[in-house]
Amino acid sequence: MSRSFDRDAFYLFVVFFCEIRYSMSRKEIEMVKKSLGGILAALRREAGYTQPQVSEILRGEGVEIRTAGISKWEKGLTQPNATQFLTLCRIYGVIDVMGTFMDCPGPVEALNAEGRRLVSDYIRVLAASGLYAEKPKEREPRLLPLYSLAASAGTGQFLDGEDYELTEVGSQTPAEADFGVRIAGDSMEPDIRDGQTVWVRRSETLANGRIGIFSLDGQGFCKKLVQRQDGVFLISINPEYPPMRITPERDLRVFGEVLI
Asked: If I label 7, which of 23, 168, 245, 248 is the partner at 20 to 30 A Cα–Cα?
């Protein structure tokens, strides 16, 4: 299946283009297919290559084809696939593909072989100068919400879901991050310092032992969630702060997992 598709990939395009633009008959399309071999042979001779030389050049381009295969192309017995065809065009210096193979007038149609060679050389000179190279598209800045009301890592402050500023972040910010929170307090030191901004992946659940941003009874916290046999706790890394037990009557909400 794939072998048949590779062989006919380019001609599927030819058939579509010709039928839509020129309303060519099937017989005429077959003539186009047969003429391809003659054009390839003429281009090879014009470029000054033998079939074995073309085979060697193609191999250097990562396209494996024997001399006998090139001969079959030029006799119209088989056709190159899309990759082979485009590589041949590059080797033979074909700039105007449609004009060369489908008799559709192009910008270099009126030029002879020497003229087309000069156009190709000029294109290479322009490209090598760097003056006319396509400029890379500027990357869209990545903006993430940074909450201005800090999630407390100490006594607790409410994390307002709307009070934030959009902040441009760089590659050092985890790709999974959805928002940032500026921490207040020292309960998570030494891992998270007072005033540090942590980046958070939004989630309504959190795995055991992970650090997250929580709302507990209306106050915001950055803590580690720990589930033990004696209950569920929000734990501080700083041993000076006691664990916060989560009981059924307490209102706990998870904002997300801290990615640092």
From this structure: 23
CATH assignment of 142-258, among 2.10.109.10, 3.40.50.300, 2.40.30.170, 2.60.40.3760: 2.10.109.10
Provide φ and ψ at 128, rounded to 5°.
-70, -30
Mean pLDDT in the chain?
Answer: 81
More confident residue, 129 or 226: 226
Q: What is d(CA 235, CA 121) in angstroms, rounded to the nearest whole number?
A: 70
The pTM (predicted TM-score) of the whole model is 0.49
* Other C-beta atoms lying within 10 Å of the C-beta of residue 210: 14
Q: Indicate the length of the chain as a whole number.
A: 260
47-52 long-range Cβ contacts below 8 angstroms, 24+ apart: 47/91, 47/92, 47/93, 49/91
Residue 16: the pLDDT is 44
More confident residue, 94 or 214: 214
What is the Cα–Cα distance from 167 to 31, expressed in whole angstroms?
62
- Alpha-helical (H) ranges within 81-158 are 82-92, 97-102, 113-129
Residue position matching structure tokens 């598209």? 137
What is d(CA 187, CA 219) in angstroms, rounded to the nearest whole number?
15
Residue type, 47: A
pLDDT of residue 176: 94
DSSP string, 5-45: HHHHHHHHHHHHHIIIII---HHHHHHHHHHHHHHHHHHHH
d(CA 42, CA 139): 45
CATH of domain 2-129: 1.10.260
Q: Map residue 138 onto helix, strand or coil.
A: coil
Residue by residue, DSSP assigns 189-202 as TTTS-TT-EEEEEE
Give residue-wise pLDDT tens across range 234-258: 999 999 999 999 999 999 999 999 9
SS3 of residue 89 by DSSP: helix
